[in-house]
Amino acid sequence: MLGTRRRARERIVEDLASVRQRTLALVEHLDRRDLERALDPLMSPLVWDLAHIAAYEDLWICGRHGGRELLRPDLAAMYDAFETPRAVRADMALLDTPHALAYLADVRERSLAVLDEHGAGDGTYVELVLRHELQHTETMRQAMALGGLLPPGDPPPAPAPGAGGYVALEAATFAMGAGPDGFAYDNERPRHPVALRAFEIARTPVTNAMWLQFAGTGAREDRAWWSEAGWTWRQDEGRADASTARTGDPGAPVCHVSFFEAEAFARFAGARLPSEAEWERAATAGVLAGTGYVWEWTTSTFAGYPGFVAHPYPEYSEVFFGDRYRVLRGGSWASHARVATPTFRNWDLPQRRQIFAGVRLARDVEAAA
Predict the structure, then answer these.
(1) Extents of the domains making up the chain
(2) Strand order in the sheet with 346-348
(3) Is 199 helix (H, G, I), strand (E, B) or coil?
(4) Rounded to an integer, what distance in angstroms lies between the CA atom of residue 275 and that of residue 364?
(5) Is CATH 3.40.50.360 what the domain over 166-368 is classified as, yes or no?
(6) Confidence (pTM)
(7) Could you tell me how many helices (H) and strands (E) the chain has, helices first?
(8) How does pLDDT run across 248-274, given as a tens digit for each residue?
(9) Each residue of 4-20: pLDDT tens digit?
(10) How does strand 199-202 pair with strand 192-196?
(11) What is the CATH number of domain 2-146?
(12) Is the distance from CB of 69 to CB of 20 less than 8 angstroms?
């Protein structure tokens, strides 16, 4: 038993160290000026993310799990994502880079001491901290992409596109969501039955070459393809095509498209976007190729599943429920496999394009006949 506990702790320490090494390697090519300024008005200064990662770990491992007082209670509000929204972070007296890095190191020392003293319990808090840091490194890559400061090698080449076309799935009821065992976010549970009508879904995501047929031929300017909300957005901030279609590999999945654009492209292509239930069923059935290079927009708004229970805090999911946000599935090249599981639900506003998001098409069987 003692040997099992020792090995479990060693694995946890290795995981914590590996994720931290990944975070620090991400920014090692940047100077202080780029770390401490806002690379885009939409995003936080990268140094805010670094200190936020430390504050979050201190709260959950040292505070909630270990029962310790916060290392820096004076920083709690500044590095709380809800207390300090993105719009004001660049104007605050944030920790500079050396102090943010020291904060990360000091919190990690406390965390390891807590784990030595208390163990990891059921592992929930440790896993929450690990995945939180991994999610923030993707957010940091979004900011770096907007600022033209991605590290060498990012983004990696897209996988070979493979055979296209659609695959048909018959009407069926399937079990949606994460099961009761292991770690999952609250919005992934409980697993519940969902009945779906027959539908078809594209085997591969929409490519840059396919997108150019929409954006490069004038079709993107045609009101006929847009929803009312989408056309309003298109007339204002969405005037220009910000996708990778013109600069990327023609066979790679198109990236940096909004939900509004994805929805319009689907109409242009004689198709629609899948619901997240359709997406998850297709992923579970193993018929999707090319997942994991771009997030894929779905028609679904972000809401709790039947029987939803907020855990371990309402601010992770529940405060975002409603019709403002659309769900994305599948992960991107910047996502870690530990986070982007088949049941993981990402969400963002339909106008957002900073995320590494693309499109997969679906069709009603009647429409395809």
Answers:
(1) 2-146, 166-368
(2) 346-348, 326-329, 295-301, 357-358
(3) strand
(4) 11
(5) no
(6) 0.95
(7) 11, 9
(8) 999 999 999 999 999 999 999 999 999
(9) 677 788 899 999 999 99
(10) unpaired
(11) 1.20.120
(12) no
